[in-house]
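go over both lines:
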Amino acid sequence: MNPAKSYAHLFSPLGGEGGENYRAPGQLTFLRAPHVALETEALKAHGARYAFVGVPFDEGNVGKPGSEDGPREFRIASQEYLSYWFEFGVDLNGLAVDCGDVPMPKVNPDSARERIYRAVTTVLKAGVTPIIVGGDRSISIQAARALSDHIGPGKKMGCLHFGAHLDLADSWAGEKLLSTCALARITELPNLNAANVAHIGARNSMNPKDYIDLAKARNIRFYPMFEIYERGIDAVTREAVAKVWGGTDAQYLSFNFNVMDASAAPGVTATEPGGLESREMVRVADIIGVQKTASLIDVTELAPVYDVSGTTSRLAVCTVLRLMAAMARARGELVDQSLRRSDLTAAE
């Protein structure tokens, strides 16, 4: 523990300056984190472990529109959480910064895609883990390409993909860079071996036969919901994590929250019945967190206009924060439990 650091934020606000920004944060940022320019040197100088980057890109979507509002609502939902997680005994304060949103020129999707690639590359060059929030799932194509190029051809990459759909269309209506093509493009990266790829949550008939055929042709292991019903989420997640983290130098962790049952996550572009329950996603985050780190995390397809009371955005934030907390615990970054609030210490 750093004796020079103030830990007042671990406790309930006492009033005055310590309590003024709860739910009235001024500048809206992820988990009230400081804003840092999306520049490699600025990120290095700050020393944070995670950099939040909003990617309000909705031009690769084939479902309902609205995911360009995902980053804003994700930030808003993060205001409902504090940085101390008692289940893990850790404090997330200071671990993240917010780099704002990538500017999206709507009239030029190719330019927008290149900006996504450059933004992710900028964060990776600083030695920081990007948390990118979209935006439709096609943003994963550029982000994964950035990670692949960053580690180079001599190293191995893994990818763990969550969603109701496999996104394995080689093309969709003649286009190859849409959300429906995300995993098809990602599994073409030269340093990503099929042995280190896993998909969790596929179900129902928006997974046409060409998806299944391409999965088989590329030896991609996917865990459909009926297998999760039979084996349980813990067993499936542990097996998938072993594939993705086993012997790899970098790992891409991608969440489309339509992996959840439609009742648990109504605020996505393509809801599907029969998916994961909230408590199962909590277990997913805890199990992945044992790995201590991920190289890149994304959340896609949040569509707040269809949400109910912010349910889906809050679930997405909770998942990411629990993941961060579980990783901090696995690294041994625990809060000194002897710390007490000053007024309680006096009472004792």
